[in-house]
Design brief:
Layout: H1 4-12, H2 15-18, E1 50-58, E2 61-69, E3 77-83, H3 90-96, H4 99-106, E4 109-113, H5 128-133, H6 137-151, E5 154-164, H7 166-177, E6 183-187, E7 202-208, E8 219-220, E9 228-229, H8 232-242, E10 249-253, E11 256-263, E12 267-274, H9 300-310
Parallel strand pairs: 3-4, 3-5, 5-6, 6-7, 7-12
Antiparallel strand pairs: 1-2, 2-4, 8-9, 10-11, 11-12
Length: 316
């Protein structure tokens, strides 16, 4: 089943509401009860330099995340949330996609949350146990941001979310259901479920045309979750409509085509299409077991950070 008509109606009817929303704010709806973060190298409530692990309470459940804070990071710091794919984990995401090295180079704090049952509830009944039991992952991930903000100075205009596969789908869900993020980057992912009133933000998608788990042209994928969603170009068009963007401009270099649409408030909606690439994180040296061979002609981590750095939240 192709969900494009329902998603189009939901997003297109949100454009009027967008005029009244701007900047960063809090989770819309949901109940969150948080406890202090617990760093492995310091007292509770701090984000130490280097790698550390943390727990907090959300909806009566103990949830966890990893953090990486480079030495000498400026205050207030930008924050990137990296979301693992289905069957992945925070530790696997930290080791696979190069964000710690990017953090060192660009002076960024990165957090790696753990999905319950190694999956995320992204809407439309997907995915895994969180989707079946309707786990409020938007509340958990919003609590992670607040937890870090309570432990160190974070620039609220430079809070970003990215992810691969189910994690990229969760980044879309955060864009739909929270007001915390200035921009998101979704790799090998699609949008499921309703998205009636996304707040103004910038959106980057990276996708291969040979992705069989989440097909570029839409329809049911061949992966374990059998994800059945709209085409990737149609998702990009829905975000352009929701953000009231101008027409896209495309450039092609080898296998990579980049389509960029300028939007009000210096925001942007961008799609990077990789001809012949599969379900993977471009430029990574490894991924979770079962992922396709990473495309070597693009460093997705560097590309996503460059997009984030160019698109902080604005007041218009």
């Amino acid at each position: 089943m192709n969900r494009t008509p329902r998603l189009a109606l939901a997003l297109l009817t949100s454009v009027v509401a967008l005029a009244a929303l701007s900047g960063c704010g809090a989770l819309r709806g949901g109940t969150v009860t948080t406890g202090p973060a617990t760093g492995t190298e310091s007292a509770a409530g701090s984000i130490p330099v280097g790698a550390s692990s943390h727990t907090l309470q959300v909806d009566g459940q103990t949830r966890s995340y990893l953090s990486y804070r480079p030495a000498g990071v400026a205050d207030p710091a930008p924050l990137v949330m990296m979301l693992h794919g289905g069957f992945g984990s925070a530790a696997q995401a930290e080791s696979s996609y190069g964000w710690d090295a990017e953090a060192d180079a660009e002076h960024v704090v990165v957090v790696y949350p753990d999905g319950a049952g190694r999956a995320w509830n992204v809407g439309g009944g997907c995915c895994g146990a969180p989707g079946r039991t309707n786990v409020d992952d938007a509340a958990f991930l919003s609590a992670v941001v607040r937890d870090v903000e309570s432990a160190m100075p974070i620039d609220p205009s430079r809070v970003f979310a990215t992810g691969i596969s189910n994690g990229g789908m969760m980044a879309y869900r955060l864009a739909c259901d929270t007001e915390l993020f200035a921009a998101i980057g979704a790799d090998s992912a699609t949008l499921l479920g309703d998205c009636r009133s996304p707040h103004p933000l910038s959106v980057l998608a990276i996708h291969g045309t040979a992705d069989h788990n989440i097909p570029y042209d839409g329809g049911e994928g061949s992966g374990f979750a059998k994800i059945d969603g709209p085409s990737i170009p149609s998702v990009n068009q829905l975000w352009r409509a929701a953000e009231a963007c101008g027409p896209p401009v495309s450039t092609t270099s080898g296998q990579v085509t980049t389509s960029t649409a300028a939007c009000p408030g210096a925001r942007s909606v961008e799609l990077i299409t990789i001809e012949g690439a599969g379900h993977q994180w471009p430029g990574s040296t490894k991924g979770r077991q079962g992922a396709d061979t990473p495309y070597a002609g693009l460093d997705a981590t560097a590309a996503i950070w460059a997009f984030f750095a160019a698109h902080p939240a604005t007041s218009s």
